[in-house]
Specification:
Length: 354
C-alpha cells in the first residue's frame, strides 16, 4: 500500500499538523501552512484530522497509486487530474490501483494545495509528528522534499473511507485565495518600539510578498516602517504569525518553519484563523493588515472549528445513505449513539424471507 512519485513537482512535502511542545528547545512546529484545509480533506477521506497529507506548492507532482484509495485535494486549485482527466478539488475522488494523480500549475486560485489520502501517509514520526522540517532535514520522507522514484507508504484506511466518494465540501466551508487579502492581527509585544507614524503606515499600507519568501517567513515589500527605538532587542520567543520589523523597516511574517526566537521587534501577530490565507499566497501577491482584538481573534478560530464540525456532520449524513442496487438498497451505513458514544454500523442484507 503505497504511492510512487513519478515527478515531484516544485516543492511537495509530507505534512501533518506539526510537532508541538518543542519550541523551547529550538524546534519549529512545521506542519501544513493551512491546517484547516488539511483537516477538512482528511475528514472527507475518513482520516483523523491530524493525519499526514502532502503539501503541494505552485507546481504539483505526478503520483501513481499502488492500491485503491479515496483522495481529496483541498486548498488552492492547482488543476488536479486523474489519468489526464480533470477532477474537482474539495471532493472525495476514488482512485484505483495504477491510477495517476497529477496537477497543473498555480494560477489566480491559490499557490498551495493539500492531498489527503484514505489511511494517510504512514512515514516514520519524529517527535510525535510526520511533518517535514526542511531546514532541519527531519520528519516526512527522509527529511526532505519529494523526489522522483520515492515510495511513500500509506496507512490502513477507515472502513467507511470509501463512503466519502462524491462528497463535496460546500463552497462556504472552503478556504479560498483572495488577492489583496486583509489579514487580521493583534498588537505585538514591541509595538511601542515604533513611532505613531510607523504604526499608521503599517496598518494603512499595502504590501507585496517578496521573491525571497518561503515556509520559514514571508518578506514583504512596500513602505518602510519607522522605528522609534532601536531595531534590535534581546532575543525572545517568535511564534508562527509574528510580524517582525528589522532595521530596514520592511516587515517579515514568520511562518511554520520559522525560528523559535529572534531579535527584531514584533509590531503585530497574524491571528491563527488568518494564517492559512498566507499559505495560498505566492510572491507578488498583495496583502494588508487590520488590527483586531482578542475577542474577534477567538471568534474567528471558533468559526473555523465550527466549519470542521459542519463538514463532519454533513459527511455522517452522506455516508449513511443507502447504496442503491437497482430499485432496492441491499446495504448501507448508519450511525448509532449509545450512552453518549457514537458507533458507525455497516449493514448488509444477506437473504430474504418468504
Amino acid at each position: 500500500m503505497s504511492v510512487e512519485v513519478l515527478s515531484p513537482g516544485l516543492l511537495t512535502s509530507v505534512q501533518d499538523l506539526g510537532r508541538h511542545g518543542f519550541q523551547a528547545f529550538g524546534m519549529p512546529v512545521a506542519g501544513a501552512l493551512d491546517p484547516y484545509s488539511l483537516m477538512a480533506g482528511n475528514l472527507v477521506v475518513g482520516n483523523d484530522p491530524k493525519a499526514a497529507g502532502l503539501e503541494v506548492t505552485l507546481a504539483g507532482p505526478e503520483l501513481v497509486f499502488r492500491s485503491e484509495r479515496l483522495v481529496c485535494v483541498t486548498g488552492g486549485d492547482l488543476s488536479p487530474r486523474v489519468n489526464g482527466s480533470a477532477v474537482a478539488s474539495w471532493e472525495g475522488v476514488p482512485l484505483r490501483e495504477g491510477d495517476v494523480l497529477s496537477f497543473g500549475t498555480a494560477d489566480s486560485r491559490g499557490a498551495r494545495c493539500w492531498v489527503c489520502v484514505g489511511g494517510g501517509f504512514d512515514t516514520l514520526p519524529v517527535l510525535g509528528s510526520r511533518s517535514t522540517y526542511l531546514r532541519g532535514r527531519l520528519g516526512g520522507h527522509q527529511g526532505r522534499r519529494l523526489e522522483k522514484g520515492d515510495i511513500l507508504p500509506l496507512g490502513t484506511p477507515d472502513i467507511l473511507s470509501c463512503r466519502g466518494e462524491g462528497f463535496v465540501v460546500p463552497t462556504e466551508l472552503r478556504r479560498g485565495f483572495v488577492d489583496g487579502s486583509v489579514l487580521r492581527v493583534i498588537s505585538g509585544p514591541q509595538e511601542d518600539f515604533f513611532t505613531p507614524v510607523g504604526i499608521e503606515e503599517f496598518y494603512g499600507s499595502s504590501y507585496r510578498i517578496g521573491p525571497d519568501s518561503d515556509r520559514m517567513g514571508y518578506r514583504l515589500q512596500g513602505k518602510a516602517i519607522q522605528h522609534g527605538r532601536e531595531a534590535d532587542i534581546v532575543s525572545d520567543a517568535v511564534p508562527w504569525g509574528a510580524v517582525q520589523v528589522p532595521g530596514n523597516g520592511l516587515p517579515i511574517i514568520m511562518m511554520a518553519d520559522g525560528q523559535t526566537t529572534g531579535g527584531y521587534p514584533k509590531i503585530a501577530a497574524v491571528i491563527n484563523a488568518d494564517r492559512g490565507l498566507l499559505a495560498l499566497m505566492s510572491p507578488g501577491d498583495r496583502l494588508s493588515f487590520r488590527r483586531c482584538g482578542l475577542g474577534e481573534a477567538s471568534d474567528a478560530s471558533r468559526t473555523l472549528k465550527e466549519g470542521l464540525g459542519r463538514i463532519r456532520g454533513l459527511l455522517a449524513e452522506y455516508r449513511s445513505r443507502p447504496v442503491q442496487r437497482g430499485a432496492q438498497a441491499d446495504r448501507g451505513v448508519m450511525r448509532l449513539k449509545i450512552e453518549g458514544k457514537s458507533f458507525d454500523i455497516e449493514w448488509k442484507i444477506i437473504g430474504w424471507r418468504g
